[in-house]
Amino acid sequence: MGSPFTQNSQIVSGFVPVDMQAGANTGDWVSVENFNHVAIVFFKAAGTAGDDPTITVSQATDAAGTSSKALNFTRIYTKQGTLSSVANFTLTTQSAANTYTDATSAEVQAIWVVEFDADDLDVSSGFTHVQASVADVGSNAQVGACLYLATEPRYAAAVADATSAIS
After folding, report:
1. Using the 8-state DSSP alphabet, how is residue 5 labeled?
2. Distance between CA atoms of 120 and 130, rounded to whole angstroms?
3. Tens digits of per-residue pLDDT, 123-154?
């Protein structure tokens, strides 16, 4: 058996499943100081047409969000539709921006993944933390959640001693 996922990765909650129409859904800050890669996974149920979510990604110098600023990306991987029938991710590219939305995504189930290497952050200015948020989606119920998957640890550790990404 290869190395267990839990030995080489960390899963951190951005925000737990919530009705996203109840207000802004601000994710927790996650540290990538001890990891070389982070994938932000946004997962949602189908909602009502026109209530399309927008994911926004930011970076900061600490877990308090100090000096927060945009963390731009050009690639996002999506699965949209009846997820049990969508086998592969679709790569969407965009001009560099720290937000993404799909104007027909509200009415379908979706998984969106945005990935960064640690050196994609403004490391020369001390940026070490990432946050993803989804604004209020509108006036109709739509359940969503966000996870961070921190991978490629910079230091080897046993499962019980795996490096945390929580600050």
Report:
1. H
2. 11
3. 999 999 999 999 989 999 999 999 999 999 88
156 Cβ contact list (under 8 Å, min separation 6): none
Inside any domain, residue 6: no
Q: Say how far apart CA 100 and CA 118 lie, in whole Å.
A: 20
Helix or strand holding residue 112 (H, E) = strand 109-117
**Is residue 1 domain-resident?**
no
pTM over 0.70: yes
62 falls within a domain: yes
- Asked if 32 and 120 count as a contact pair (C-beta separation under 8 A), the reply is no
For residues 127 and 120, what is the distance between their CA atoms, to the nearest angstrom?
10
Number of structural domains found in the chain: 1
